[in-house]
Amino acid sequence: MMQFALKMGLLVCFSIMVLTLYHEAFIYNGGITSSSFVIKQSKPIDMPLSSDVFSHPPGYNAPQQVHITQGDHVGRAVIVSWVTQDEPGSSSVVYWTDTNPQKHKATGKLTTYKYYNYTSGFIHHCIIKNLKFNTKYHYEVGIEMGHTTRRFWFMTPPAVGPDVPYTFGIMGDLGQTYDSNVTLTRYEMNPVKGQAVLFVGDLSYADHYTFHDNSRWDSWGRFVERCTAYQPWIWTAGNHELDYKPSIGETKPFKPFIHRYQVPFWASGSTEPLWYSIKRASAYVIVLSSWLISSYIHSMYTPQYQWLHEEFPKVNRGETPWLIVLMHSPWYSSNHDHFMEGESMRVIFEPWFVKYKVDLVFAGHVHAYERSERISNVAHNIVNGECSPVSDQFAPVYITIGDGGNIEGLANKMREPQPKYSAYREASFGHATLEIKNRTHAYYSWHRNADGYAARADSVMFFNRYWYPKDDSTTKSKRRW
Ligand SMILES: [Fe+2]
Fold it and tell me: N or C: which end of the chain has fewer CB within 10 A?
């Protein structure tokens, strides 16, 4: 009888332990912080150029690689870009609203560039301005007698305001592999409908090819056109945009990227397309460059530093409550890949991020997914020994989402033990969505490629740091880290 009771007692204890672990793991959404999800993953390979996703649009001089991005500071302008291959053709865009067939015309500019033995097609950029908010526009490019025209459409964002709901998709390090195609398809098929994409850098991975074969920039443009022609992607430059290769005489960093992907940097007083800001609905998005033109080392008084110094005080949280920063190289990542590469930038800028209560920081570069708790490491100076990040409710959540599926494969070597600040980490391909509900709440989810379209592998309701700075951490530990 005693033995039976003992056995039953042990069984009950064991069951409680299991239930407790279950509770920790699932109720606290990351209380056990490392996902146990393991996917057998072979290294991604690029889709061959003969793939249907890279097909050239039919017809003479048909515009290809069509993409749009925001063209001013508030969302009433759009930059339309495309490439023609046979001859320059027209740089004009004809556009009209869904409800009024009266057509408007804007004329843009044409550029080309050479990269080693590659000569680009004719790259067109046209800004269409004074658009109405929250309106569906149709547009047509390739308008020239005897040429092929193509039509697309987009929605302008709602007017900027503090409680305007808006949904962003977030992707990074996409490349052009079969996995990249799955990631993009998952984003398109997600029942959470992103209205614009925050892209955190590393687009085509053309530099993977001999002499950085720039025809892979072209194929990438054709691959993503099915999305980029219809909704704006907000571009961040990554290291695979550098295309810096002195051995073949290519010494102008970011040459293909800057020629192909224009951004409205002038609208926020920036002097370079690598750092700028936009307002969109209830969000203020600041884009930063992890790489300066010639250096990875950040210091005070660089042009980006000067710009950001003046930029943060301009953010009016009464108008745009959600302050989001995009950069390529993460500041907080517990992955072995690129470990601490963002340090020189973090040391310089992190005090401002805490002071100005940045809500979220999205980065790529590391080919895995990770979400931090709200942490800062600003107390540290060289002598005080306070060199570990601490829980800080005025600090951002840092999200690494470089898991778009590019040819370099997953970064699956995590540092052990998992730091307390790391709320969730996993080496799987995927994308994220951020559903801003109002000035206080935004529902964030990471969607793993291996799951169903509607699945949310990691979800958090974020509370706005300015309007509702309640603790939104998902792990229980609040102790000093
Ligand atoms: Fe990168």
Answer: N
Using the structure block, give the residue that is written with the tokens 């050239």: 56
Q: What is the pTM (predicted TM-score) of this model? A: 0.92
Backbone CA torsion sign across 300, 304, 310, 311: negative
Of the residues 125, 212, 298, 338, only one is catalytic, namely: 338
Residue 196 in domain? yes
Length of the chain: 481
Per-residue pLDDT of 87-115, as tens digits, reads 999 999 999 999 998 999 999 999 999 99
Helix (H, G, I), strand (E, B) or coil at 13: helix
In this predicted structure, what is the pLDDT of residue 299? 73
Say whether 338 is catalytic: yes
Structurally, the chain folds into a number of domains equal to: 1
Residues spanned by the domain of 172: 162-201+274-480
Q: Tell me how far the alpha carbon of residue 472 lies from the centroid of ligand 1, in angstroms.
A: 29
338 vs 345: CA distance, rounded Å: 14
Distance CA(481)–CA(471), nearest Å, equals: 16
- Amino acid sitting at position 357: K
| Cα(143) to centroid(ligand 1), Å | 37
From 47, 385, 380, select the one nearest 222 (Cα to Cα): 47
Cα–Cα distance between 132 and 104 in angstroms, integer? Answer: 13
Mean pLDDT for the chain? Answer: 90
pLDDT, tens digit (0-9, with 9 covering 90-100), for 405-434: 999 999 999 999 999 999 999 999 999 999
* 3-class DSSP assignment, residue 442: strand
Q: What is the Å distance from ligand 1's center to 402 Cα? A: 8
Ligand 1 centroid–CA 336 distance in Å is 14
CATH classification at residue 279: 3.60.21.10
